[in-house]
Fold these 4 entries.
Entry 1:
Amino acid sequence: MKKNITLSRYLVEQQRVDGLIPAQLRLLIEVVARACKRISHSVNKGALGDVLGTAGSENVQGEVQKKLDIIANEVLIEANEWGGHLAAMASEEMDSIYLVPNRYPQGEYLLMFDPLDGSSNIDVNVSIGTIFSVLKKPEGHPGVTEDDFLQAGAQQVAAGYCVYGPQTTLVLTFGDGVAMFTLDREQGSFVLTQENVRIPEDTKEFAINMSNMRHWDEPVKRYVDECLAGVEGPRNKDFNMRWIASMVADVHRILTRGGVFMYPWDKREPNKPGKLRLMYEANPMSWLVEQAGGAATNGRERILDIQPTKLHERVSVVLGSKNEVERITRYHTEA
Ligand code: P6P
């Protein structure tokens, strides 16, 4: 791979080569990347900056907001509202959509994000991240409403995340494969470090919060029990388990070395289809995983085919190595 290809050069060359990245979308991604650099800087301050602990408020999900949740949300709003590339934004941290103020030009894109995913890990110095998804605003009517955001994940025009871990790494797709960029703090740029990311179709590693086992549905119990049975069991191989409780970190591991991630429906809140949010967690992650040769379902159907009905809709998630996702999905449809 060529050396020192910065994100800006990569986007210009991709735009030139296949027109997948119109100028306004290229600007959008460059602005989001710059915002992620600023968020990374705040995250890295930790106890040295006034950024740890809770903000004393709750978000639309009823979750206690951390100071860094609000900082990250504000950084993304301020970075994107003036550029003329967006019509509106939506965030896990905001009840309703955020319209670009009238003092700025309106663009054709809609940006959704979880500004800082994995907040429970902030104060204990474990990897966290920003997840984002880009849709085109439907044409034919002026202004923007929440309904304009309610598009299936298959309609995304760009998606990605930035993981704030030992390295700060930006992972992107525009529908032509997955690329990874590592932040070079000396030059202040994201530098291309991997292209055409591929997830192995098989794996020996699963990720799920095992403390919820007694609440799972039968197909999930069956799958995990078979993994735990190891080489003496029906799978004829031993499995390893990981659970970081930051979706960004678990998905990054799967994109890097394979594996399967599950946050399934469970009996604790039977009226909720799952814990994770469809529009700005499951959809962008599912597209990235599919673009890397993996699969992503809600246990029964492809996540990217789900037609959203609410902005903060939740969904059950099974994603990662293709053959494992197909097995787990088969267990659900057989049940
Ligand atoms: P639990 C983080 O809060 C998050 O939304 C995902 O990033 C993560 O995979 C999941 O929730 C962790 O949930 O119930 O294990 O704390």
Entry 2:
Amino acid sequence: MSQPLPPLQSLLSAMPALPDARRGEFARRYSEQEAVLHQRLSGLYGTLPGFARWYAELAAQVGRLAAARPAELQAQDEQRLANPDWFQDQSMLGYCAYADRFGGSLAGVAQRIPHLRELGVRYLHLLPFLRPRAGENDGGFAVASFDDVDPKLGGNADLDALTARLRAAGISLCSDFILNHVADDHPWARGARRGDSALRAYFHVFPDRRMPDRYERTLGQVFPQVAPGNFSYVEDMGGWVWTTFYPYQWDLNYANPAVFADMAAALLRLANRGIEVFRLDSTAFLWKREGSNCMNQPEAHALLQALRAIVAIAAPGVLLKAEAIVPTRELPAYFGDAQAPECHIAYHSSLMAAGWGALAEQDAALLRAVLARTPELPPHTSWLSYVRCHDDIGWNVLRAEAGEADGADAGPERARARLAAIANFYSGSAGQYADGARPSGAAFQSSDPHAAHGSNGMAASLAGLAGVPAQVAPPPSPQHPSRPQPLAQDLERQQAALRRALLLHGLALSAGALPVLYMGDELAQRNDDSYRGRSEHAMDSRWLQRPVFDEYAFAQRGDPATPAGQMYGGLRALLGARRRLDALAAGAPRTVLASAAAVLALARGPRFVALFNFSGSMQPHTLARVTPGQGAADAGWRDSLTGQLCSGVVELAPWSMLWLEAAP
Ligand code: GLC
């Protein structure tokens, strides 16, 4: 057998038609990435026979896909490289939606671009839109083809048209890249079922329960009620297949280099269609190790670093985003470091959960604890902040913070009880805003007596709107003098719920992150109970927060007498202020200041302070200098939203916030 070409030559030989200058550019990028790429992959696969040949073939494949990248996207890569912090500035705003629920189809999503522009959105995360498994498919998270759009949503031409239109509107398309598993009817799984041994090796398959039982000793469970355990017996495979999520989602075996090479190629093909950001789904689970919970393993990070190096060679304008719903201390690793960068963006799920926790407890302690554990980021990276998403709010990421009382460790039992109380608050069994009348949300699955169950629901409902009759009419107005008078008590509860929903949005927008709005929250859309009547969704209460875009609420967005109008108006005021404030860029410094327990006082640099009152009572707060000697407070502060000047002691109304700029 002939010797493999050296990797760089192999890469360049795959792009013979390119002019020398372009080839030179790719050679330069490869040389820059080679140390990390080769080291990580040889660490994972170097002892396997044929590694050198496999690596040379991988380089050739990267070369082919780099050469195939459309000129327009290559030009965008160059722009991004010249401005690598483009996604960090304070005008960056994301929006997340299911394509079918938002626009009916990909073409319908394109029709919604004016709405996105009105909000100032520059990044659109469309939940899975590739061809999913036939039948149940976990909202598209069981992918049957990485190369075809879900026919229910359109064809590949619609995707190309959408990315082009979004690009023209200054909006980057983000797609899920579901790399931990494929659907059980993906061609790899079909081949494996037919007995193809090479494809069987794409999965973790065990002939009997011996190994699964050993692994199970230390594994958690994601869907313990409807998909208990982490292994599913598959008749055609004659064994147990590793299925962390639903039984029809087969975990890929990344100990097999062919899996890595095929997945890297799938990602680059999608990038060449104009997808600019990849949400790397379930990144924590990529590597299995007996005796561990098989999450956050060093090899999972090595895989991500190798993937990042490949992107940096072939599509360097593309961003990788980690979806790792893990304890705060495990999160920073997903950014890698200056020598071996990993993802550009990572969900800050602890910050999100702690915001809801602070509302339930009427105390910002959890938030302060999370922020204290949130380190400075490596250059050219950003957290992603959010209020709600399509998944449940998982409380267990906060175990460490919940176990802290006055800076001391109060132990796991206190942490569990505290998180369980918060979870119950939102699922309606205790102390919720609606006074027990109607639950704000639904409990998600749990079987672990040592853990709190997750919580489902739309932001406005969880914040208390669920407890207010939907038909609360706005009060009579000069335009509508004959409107029936709503019950004062209902109106008050409605106002309080909207203030709470806005409070959490204010936090996400000012915390130092790329904030992503969740479709419908901008209009205070409520829970959608209809999933209970759909057999394929009834067992998964995450569908509570997956409603169809509410055209009626949308039409009311300019009417401040309606809940939709109040939420939309309040949000737009925050967004407008944010765009003006450099201090709110993702990378600007962040300091937590002293405050009352119910208040979070968050300084962003010396000249901006955001105050959030998480309680239902008035809270006085004494404005002081952020940095002694920098004098901003002497001249007082200006409310960024109303323009009013203040100094000394401010009174924060229940569930209100102030965004204060140092007055000049
Ligand atoms: C991620 C998704 C979730 C899905 C799971 C399995 O956590 O956000 O919706 O069920 O991965 O793909």
Entry 3:
Amino acid sequence: MSSQSILDDLVDQARSSFAQALSPADLENAKAVFLGKAGRVTELMKGLAALSVDEKKSRGAAINQTKQAIEQALTERRQALAQAELDAQLRAEALDVSLPGRQRMPGGLHPVSLTMERIEAIFGSMGFDVAQGPEIETDWFNFTALNTPADHPARSMHDTFYVEGGTPDEPHLLRTHTSPMQIRYAVQHVKKHRALIERGELMPEIRVIAPGRTYRVDSDATHSPMFHQCEGLWIGENVSFKDLKVVFTDFCRTFFESKDLVLRFRPSFFPFTEPSAEIDIQFQAGPLAGRWLEVAGSGQVHPNVVRNMGLDPEKYIGFAFGMGPDRLTMLRYGVNDLRLFFDGDIRFLAQFN
Ligand code: PHE
């Protein structure tokens, strides 16, 4: 074999050795074999020492070319490996730009939420505060403080969901109405104005609504085990049934945008009010015209309840009402099955937005 073909053969060997290197580390090892301090090219250089000056020149130039060819092969392989790594990385992080994008679906308020907002806005404009309270209540706030005797039918297991966590003396339950908020709010209010009250001065009036979820063991087209109520309470030195009539009439006419809406206060009974009245409304026009429709319970707050608020019933008097936002929503939009509100059917719900 000629000395040149030995050199060519060495370049071929280097090339195939580099080609077999599948990682940068493998490639560095392969490089050492040919270009390292004790590598094949260095070995050839050492062989020059024994040659004559002329031979050294031509042989040296040939070895240098070989070395350059090997270095060139090395560089090419390095680049190929780097490119392969980049390709793999890009493949791993690939974005499928042909996938359809994720749409943002704008939500809308539930019809009952729309009603709640409307109630809050109307009573807010009449100077009523808005309060929220717990849905899990104690027997005291839900019944006892509201002058509801232990044998009242509303306490029976039939109507009330009892929950774990209470004691036999103080069972815990899902509030059956928002009326416990009368006590909770009033007690806070009295606490806030204690100094004033103790000095014998008059506290600022209590004027609040308390919207929220309530629960009863009941379920049909017009009853849901979870439903909504909105409590109203106005207590002051001189708040009368007349004020209740004015406020509630105003509210209903504004809510239904109907100036000629008529209200009827029908005598009724609630343990926590005396006298008590159911409030019925009557539209003068539209599909419901002429019918009396019950929308709320109401009454003058019972002296025992005023006392449980921490106030002197000889000094403070007022009224309370509790209405059903679900029913108000049905009447306003002409919905005839309450269950539609709680089925979560988007085809129904989307109509309100
Ligand atoms: N809490 C009563 C109910 O759920 C409604 C009501 C509230 C009545 C306030 C009078 C005063 O039926």
Entry 4:
Amino acid sequence: MNSLKHYEVWFITGSQHLYGDQVLRNVAAHAEEIAKSFDSNSLIPVTIKYKAVVKTPEEILTVFRQANNEVNCIGLVLWMHTFSPAKMWINSLKILSKPFVHLHTQYNAEIPWSEIDMDFMNENQSAHGDREFGFMVSRMRKRRKVIVGHWNDQQTILQLANWTRVAAGWHAFQHTRVARIGDNMREVAVTEGDKVEAQIQWGLSVNGYGVGDLVKFVNEVSDQDTAKLVKEYNDTYEVSASVKSSQSLKDAARIELGLRAFMNNGNFQAFTDTFENLHGLKQLPGIASQRLMQNGFGFGAEGDWKTAALLRAVKVMDQGLAGGSSFMEDYTYNFQNGSSTVLGAHMLEICPSIANGKPRCEVHPLSIGGKEDPARLVFDVDSGPAINVSLIDLGNRFRLLVNEVEAVKPEHDLPKLPVARVLWKPYPDLNRAAQAWILAGGAHHTVFSKAITTQFIEDFADMAGIELVIIDKDTTMREFNEKLKWNEVYYHIFQHRA
Ligand code: MN
């Protein structure tokens, strides 16, 4: 995957013509210094671009129109160094189609006690200038993130850095083309949903393809390229002697190359398949789906286009961060007083970005679907904090759910389990987490991430206008149930559109 540096976040500072040229020159110099310091900070993965200070409604409108039209501009940072009367911003805020951060900062960290005079007071007014601006944004019911802190403070920088990651994910989400190869697993409900509404709200598109469309690409793969990829498998993973040169591994490599060609040819960033629609394919794509996820493609099994699109967005957000993110399914429980855990896995398709150590490449029967034995990567996942995220369609709206979990080391080996797996302890505990998850309608499929935190999904939900419910250490069932009821009313009143 490419880095995020080609994405731009524009740094726009508001002021007005009331303080004279010297103050405006200082304001511009300060703003440029701050923008450049963000841009050169390695925590911030995107380009932060300084834009000239805006002093009039016309200047604001001009730069907002440019931001709307610049395809690489994924968002704005807005800051009122001085007072900037907010009626000047109304017409611009009305047309802005990019997300923004309201950065509530101040050029100087501390008050120069012995020097401070009215010139200083005129120049350093963000404490009240940003409140005037904030009023208007709230008055217009515009969604935005407010970050408060000195611009040199690590917490401020980290919040901004993470927000730019989310903005990049949101940008990618809006342009995601999902290929639904085969349709949905028969009779399954939660993986379905309103694809037209999803496109209206988020811009992403989901279109169906016959398995034959993929098979055509698989059949065109050369023996030479197949042999090269088999060698790569053998060099990269632990492969037993019987699997190394097996027909199964060759078939799997051919499927991976065909799938990559299919995805590139159609300019798709995410895909789904299902074990029930595999006519013409020898195996369910296992190692192929796993390795495509690792390269940043979104994936959802059994036709799950919502999880596929969500994983794509998360894969854009988490570039360069430690931990990894994967398609996941709550598979089976270990009930144990006080420390119950969930074993997460799938039939095959878990992303090796979350693997602890070198994955093993194995071939085993799938036991459903009636196809040949598929190759897959088998591995464990290191302990540590993680989140499970689900995106569902409630009929009148979409809902995001987050459950904060702690991945834990299994106390026992799993010598007969032929799939990648992770064991986690959900917060507040398994009983309440699963109770809340089920009451909120959360899916069995999720995006599991050790790379991003709940805050990323909070920012994402806000940008996209999606309802979000969170299950964490502080969740109590009584409050959670009330929240679900209040949300029914809230989303009945407010039609959220991105
Ligand atoms: Mn599944």
